[in-house]
Amino acid sequence: MSDGGVFISGSFLRYWRATAVSGLGTYVTVFALQALVVLTLDGTAADVGWLNAARWLPYLTFGLVVGALVDGRRRLPLMVRTDLVQGALLLLVPLLWWLDALSLPALLAVVFAYGTAAVVNMAATMSFLPRLVQRDQLQPAHARVDGADAVSSTAGPALGGVLVSLMGAPLAVVLDSATYVYSALTLRRIEIDEPPPRTGVTARGLIGEVVEGVRWAYGASGLRTLAIATHGWFVGNAVVGVVLAPYAFLVLDLSAAEFGLVGAAGGVGAVLGAGVTTRVGRRLGAGRTIILCHLLTTTAVATMALAGQSPYAAGVLALGQAGMGMAMGMSNSHEMSYRQLVTPDELQARTNTTLRSLNRAVVVVVAPVAGLLADAVGMQTMLVVAAVIFGAVALGLASTTFRTARAPV
Prior knowledge:
With 409 residues, the protein is an all-alpha fold. The chain is 82% helix and 1% strand.
């Protein structure tokens, strides 16, 4: 049986449901944590920058080693265990708030620990999907997962806005904890035979495996051009991620519910993007599709910057969010499937984690700087800077041979 070109098995459906539900909770939490910093802890754009940096710092600190470790182990048990760890860690946020011990440093410590568990979970989850579906179904499978993520990104911010308005940001985080428990219980029902774990791994051997993963990602695989362009994209995305919440709350004077609806508009765009991405990719190829998405992102972020000049600020900001969501919904499945199709199974976790670790390292470095600059020169100005960065990435990628790239079969 197939659906939208994807072979539907019970195991894939369980994987899809688990990622969809935990993704919904994650979008609620990302919204709630930013609202918590700005509204509950009276934070600034710089504080939001530190929050984002703490979330992604574990990728920089542990990412390369985690990839090598995950490649030598069964991936499904790691997914289940790290889901449970993430759920438990998130419960610390409302607990600290209830004890009147919640501060920015305490929040950053919890977020860093949560991010550490997320690194392991990501490495296992991304490298598990190629074991679950056939090669020719990998891009449609990613598109189906992206479609669920897009729906979550629509409902998550809206739900987060309602929950923050009704019960406050700290308690809204409880929902995400419950979604991780559901994900773990669902994943445990997947039946799959995975290779046995490697034994006798030494520290020297582990270092060698890390080096092998880096060399593959930036050398023999041919992924270097796309990888460097994606690093540049994350520079722009880090700026938007830091600036957007304080821009909405402090400059545009939106309420939590209004900002939640703005975020939901991004999700609607992502749903549309995920719905057409396979057809667009078949017509244009992976390279041109990704470049088109970067150009759409450039236009979308420029639109967000114009919201400060409009009497319909919420609507203009939502339009920009929808455009950026659509671009992300279209591009991700092509980037992920292209990367995984050129990578052998024994290097999947290392390749995914190496590239994602350096992408998140960009966020760790850029986010605090972007927050400080936003407080100094203005949030609207920083959105313009982000649009210029996205435009440069698109033009740079279009000037290389990657523009004609198509996913191997």
